User: Fold Fe-S cluster assembly ATPase SufC from Streptomyces koelreuteriae.
Amino acid sequence: MATLEIRDLHVTVEADNATKEILKGVDLTVKQGETHAIMGPNGSGKSTLAYSLAGHPKYTITGGTVTLDGEDVLEMSVDERARAGLFLAMQYPVEVPGVSVSNFLRTSATAIRGEAPKLRTWVKEVKEAMQRLNIDPAFAERNVNEGFSGGEKKRHEILQLELLKPKVAVLDETDSGLDVDALRVVSEGVNRVRETGEVGTLLITHYTRILRYIKPDHVHVFSGGRIVESGGAELADKLENEGYEAYTKGGASA
Ligand code: ADP
Ligand code: MG
Ligand code: MG
Assistant:
């Protein structure tokens, strides 16, 4: 079973000619087959965690370790992270001009599987996955994220997730900007992937809404750049009722 281990992770960014520490010692273990939710107020550093795992150059790791099955993720290039089985869906996905969804998926699958998927079965796989996610077939020929609506971006993420079958998936605010129907379709996709038992999922969210559709095994409250409390699904219910106030007193979320 694959395991993503984050130990005492410290991360800084440069802002206004100053170095600011955003992550202040994150500890988290996500095993294949488990679903974890990270929940926290805006500005607490949740996306910074996702970007740091993705290897975004703006984020400097100043301490701690991240390993996937014991392999040092922080030493890997962005491509190597994907090949190692790490899937990262960002809160604000980037456009990939001139690359169609269809080509993008096939290139990604080839990189991850180490060989090009057989064309006939691949076309069928993509078509079926798109149908399950209520995605129009014409979508496959559009350029990645170019002019996509919020809902289309999120469906495209889940399409990638279902087709690429990573070991560990980090989904940052997959629920933001979705109407109820899109939220249900996206959640069903995540649940299908989860039911395979082969993917560990780290669901990062500000709102408890998505957790009505996806029941996490573990819930972590994120505040002030670290995990301040962990529990089961009942912790999400508590947050839904009480909000984050108890965790942000004294400006701890900034
Ligand atoms: P969250 O996702 O929990 O809302 P973020 O990780 O987006 O939080 O932001 C945490 C803090 O780090 C904020 O104060 C934000 O302004 C700062 N920050 C994040 N990324 C950058 C960046 N690229 N440049 C400057 N500041 C950043
Ligand atoms: Mg935010
Ligand atoms: Mg964020």
Summary: The chain is about 35% helix and 30% strand. The first strand starts at residue 3 and ends at 15. Residues 180-195 form the longest helix (16 residues).
